[in-house]
Amino acid sequence: MNPKSNMKSLNNKQKKMEIDFWLTEYANTCNEIARLFEIKYFGKDADLPPDWVADRVGEVLIVNDYFFDMRDILTALEKNVTRKKLFEWYDYYTEGNTKLKVNFNNFLKGVI
Hints:
- This protein is mainly alpha-helical.
- Helices cover 51% and strands 9% of the residues.
- The protein has one domain.
- It has helices at 12-42, 70-78, 83-94, 104-108; strands at 51-52, 60-63, 66-69.
- The radius of gyration is 18 Å and the shape is elongated.
């Protein structure tokens, strides 16, 4: 499938096939990113499939009793965040801090 294909020139069946192809690619990529995250931060077995809340791949990942959205997973991996810093963020974010809510990226910059 060509990502730059002209959807207008496709019939309905071809459009569905194109969409299904890219949704599968997206799910596979999200699962691979989640797998790498689980290995890096939890030492999880690479053979186990990731566990997504409500089976919504690419949204919120469950690891043990922790929940991480894809935005935070990507930030942690892109910025090579330490396990300690990841859990500092998790504690800050989940404790219901009412002073100032910042995203993970700004937390890493020391905004709080």
